[in-house]
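hiii so my PI (J.) wants the whole complex modelled not just the main chain, which honestly fair. so below is everything: two entries, each one labled with what it is. i double checked the lines twice but i was tired so who knows lol
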Amino acid sequence: MESTVLTQRFPALKLLASTDMATFEVPTTDLLAVVQFLRDQEGFDLLADLCGIDWPERQPRFGVVIHLLNTQKAQYVRLHVPAVNDSVPSIAALHPGANWHEREAYDMFGIQFAGHPDPRRILMWDSYPYHPLRKEFPLAGIEVPLPAADVAEVTGQGVEPAPMMGGPFVSDGGKMSEGEPSGRDQSWTEKHPKR
Amino acid sequence: MVKSDFGYNSKVEGEVIVTQADAVVNWVRSHSVWPMPMGLACCAIELMAAGGSRFDISRFGMEVMRFSPRQADCMIVAGTVTYKMAEVVRRIYDQMAEPKWVIAMGACASSGGMYRSYATLQGVDNIVPVDIYISGCPPRPEALLDGMMLLQEKIRQEGGSLRRTFRGRTIETKIVR
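here's the output for the full assembly
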């Protein structure tokens, strides 16, 4: 597909620089028409991926990236949709596979998908108050109660920040047989805090 | 059979076996552990291998895998316990009849393993009492079998096998002559 086919039909689309595949910035108002045009006229019949992105320096901060595949010509196209008021139209009616992808993007980033048939969280539990893949969310997590109040009462357990001493596990670069991946800085623990 | 179970010599004792009630009950229990696979991640694959013909868990008297907690007495937590799943694990544990044991299979179930993150419970022992921890990521089937044999050893040494708790109260079973 020539990129001009799309930009001529939808003048609001912007061709973005890309090293691998045709990439367009699509305004939310054009998204449904563009995806339908690509699916019905241009043969991009498979939704390869749909994910949220968080780019705090940018305005708007959140966006959605959609990869579509033409299964006949083995071509990809990438659509970048900046969210308007943290909201993007749902394409689940055009590509049913987008249903769970959009639920995941909502769960992890808090992006709303207008017109989604089932806008619930998919990974975290329904009452979870945060969106964990946002840049400001700490990897260790934030203390909240367990989803089941009766289990929390019996066990005295809540959702607690995970131990982060030494940071995430990394390989030290040596031979695999000689060293296991471990935290880089093991000099501190929860009981002896970092100086 | 462990030597300490009975001091039985048919020529001396006749046809009578003298033992402690605990020893008999524990011997029976240790050789009929009915495990329930709580397969949550890749450890469950090794658990299945342990149940298959190559490793053959039935050699040690624990092959009766039950998928209902009502019929099982040993929960094998095989895999990563997320906070979302923790509730389910605890409820299933609560549904098991006494006496019951728990095995934490692998690094994730024992300590959270490599998942130091917001979503993962850092060890299933935070929500259920664990009897045996098995190291490995995932453990080999041999390691699971070794853990199960350790559990059998532990069961044989338990006291008060005729005692049970019911809704928080302790009930002694009386042997009536």
